[in-house]
Amino acid sequence: MLIDLILILPLTSILLSLLFRWSVVLGATLAFFNLALLIFGIVLAFNIETTGPVTAIDATFYADSLSSFMVIVIGLISFLSSLFSIRFSIKELAKNQSTLLEISRYTLLTQIFIFTMLFAVVSSSVAMIWVAVEATTIATTFLVGFRKNKKALEASWKYIIICSVGVGLAFVGTLFFYFASAHIGGPISSSRPVSLDWTFLIKNSKKLNPQIIKFGFGFILLGYGTKTGLAPMHSWLPDAHSQAPAPVSALMSGVLITVAFYTILRFKAITDIAVGRWFSQDLLIAVGLLSLLLATSLLITQKEIKRMLAYHSIEHMALIALGAAAGSEIAIAAVLLHILGHGLVKAILFIASGEMLITEGSTEIAKLKSLLTHKPLLGGIFGVGLLALLGLPPFSLFTSEFAMMKSEISVGLGWVVGISLVLMAVIFGVVVSHARHILVGESSGRQTLKTSKLSNPIRASRLTTTPLVLGLILSAAIGVVSWPLQTLLLSAAKVISG
Amino acid sequence: MTVSVGWYVGLGAILFSIGFVGVLIRRNVLIMLMCVELMLNASNLTLVSYARQLKDIGGQVDVFFVLVVAAAEVVVGLAIVVSIFRKRLNATADDISSLKG
Q1: CATH number of the domain bearing residue B33
Q2: Is residue B10 in some structural domain?
Q3: Which of B14, B80, B89 to mutate to test binding with chain A, by most A CBs within 10 Å of its CB?
Q4: A168, B43 in Cβ contact below 8 A?
């Protein structure tokens, strides 16, 4: 019943945004619906904790603790993003940068985007998960190209081609799993075929042919890894994240890439039993270290905030891949906590950068100076958000990174921790120097004076800053006391680590 | 003579390879899009032939969903290509390269 509600809610939002043109009332209603989604996710988690996994519509949909955790993450980020969407739409219309029709279309596509992600995390069949992940690409391509200028079109072109090829490879991986599974045969009595159901696959994973599963997981990691932003097929990510409107970047970076990683985790669970943990471990370490190295080397040269944040996403996905490589229950729980913490903080930073674009007229690092003196609150949020992203205590990213590294060391991957610490130190230095420039850099020369005079009348909106401050407090709270989450995280991790 | 499942799978593999190589080496944006579509449909052919061989109706039903999203994806891709052509004539993938690093 709850799963039905979780799917009906975004469908209603889609219907509403189809029927009505955008207005503040519609925007507020959609934000409220997304908040309801978050609450339903929490109720679902409690339900599953007491009664076990739930199914809906003849087991077409299936939710265990892991699914409910992802619903909570999606709900939280969607709520933040839809709140800022109101501010974004008002400003777009006021400045005549977009027509009402364009804003209405933008709202509709965003809601479809949220629906497809939810569909992916509550589907029981791995083929349906694939369909949902491909559908996220379709829904977001136009959102990436929202500005319709040269750069935005280029970003959306890269996005759809690279992601389609990647997801196409993931489909081949799914075929391998199907081939292995259909050969052992499902229960004939069941009313619907089950050989592609994740529950069937995990139950019978010992019987699956390990050679076929090895091929399959390779394709899955490469394919869904594309959508996660892992090397070697990461190149769409910085372009798409920097060209999309800020609320969409928040959703893409906050949840879309982790929904793709959620799929990898599901397949990893099957592969670990069928082949042994060493196989997925080796692959994930290779992919993770390569991505981390790439993100570090490219982060150094970035001149624009949103691109910088996008490379940060690659870095964090690499850390998550390395954490998943460790594979123990604690490691997976830390990976999930990192998914939540990264999503929250990244959404906050993208929204803050969207607000900067509104108030300062630019997100280029060179053009932004001494933000802390003329916009103390916005500058403060951005600064604290960056510190949280870099993994400083008390924020939850510190807790999860610490726990991931501890479990990596405990399974004998100390050298991986060593390499990632060195690379993270480089990133730390680069980001701190950028942040110093943006926040306290001296405004010298006539040009900066002129721009700051021009931009000063536009103040950061309370509608934006209040949720962001609350979000940062939440992130710190999760980092310090994780007790309500701990049970959920551990039972969700048990789904993967067995 | 009946056509065994091996032939279908073989055809699927050939089509997939053509598509994959095409995306990598062709520079015309339209052809690249067609190659992606070829990859998806080759995999689809493989899925439906396995499903038929194993008499699994579920796999055969899933093919429809895959077809729908693959078709939707090519429509979106074409729309982007048309917008690119509107901005500049004779675009190849090498010209679409203002975003780097």
Answers
A1: 1.10.287.3510
A2: yes
A3: B80
A4: yes
B23 contacts on A by Cβ (under 8 Å) = 161, 165
Residue A143 to residue B79: CA distance in whole angstroms: 13
B17 in any annotated domain: yes
Rounded-to-integer distance, Cα A342 and Cα A481, Å: 17
Consecutive 10-residue averages of pLDDT for chain A (498 residues): 90 95 93 95 92 86 94 96 93 90 94 96 93 94 90 91 93 92 64 76 89 95 95 91 94 94 95 93 95 92 90 95 93 95 95 90 82 86 93 90 94 93 94 87 53 58 87 90 84 88
pLDDT at A445: 47
Within a domain: residue B98?
no
pTM for the model stands at: 0.93
Give which of A385, A89, A367, A111 is closest to A245, Cα–Cα: A89
CB contact under 8 A, B72 and A161: no
Measured in angstroms, the CA of B1 and the nearest CA of chain A are apart by 25
Domain extent at residue B12? 5-90
Q: What is the ipTM of this complex?
A: 0.90
Q: Is residue B61 part of a domain?
A: yes
How many CB pairs below 8 Å do chains A and B form together? 119
Q: Which residue of B has its CA nearest to A175?
A: B47
Of A138, A195, A302, the CB nearest to B76: A138
What does the pLDDT average to over B39-61?
A: 86
Cα torsion A368, A371, A374, A378: sign: positive
Q: What percent of chain B has pLDDT over 90?
A: 39
Domain count of chain B? 1
Count the Cβ atoms, other than its own, within 10 Å of residue A185.
14
Q: Does B45 touch chain A if contact means CB atoms closer than 8 Å?
A: no
